[in-house]
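User: Predict the structure for this protein chain, please.
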Amino acid sequence: MLKCLECLKNFDGKKTGVFAAGVLFGTAGIKILSSKDAKKVYTSCTAAALRAKECVLDVAGRIQENAEDIYAGARQINEDRAAGEEEYLDEEDVRAE
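Assistant: Here is the predicted structure, written as structure tokens:
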């Protein structure tokens, strides 16, 4: 009997209460998170995320197309410029002779 009383002296009601509250809230949380209403919210959020993904991919595709057009235009400008310099140098060689 004495050992049992010593056990009760070591009993910490605050820690046990916190543990019990955690178990209670955990159980309630699981029920709330698995409810039909919660599943509707998850579905709506997932649908919104998928729409946002499509929008981002569309914009990224347009940006990539514009970048490719700019790159092609820049290469053409450099090729035209290089051809023009060659023609200019050829004309100078003809004049020098």
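Residues 84 and 90 are 10 Å apart (CA to CA).
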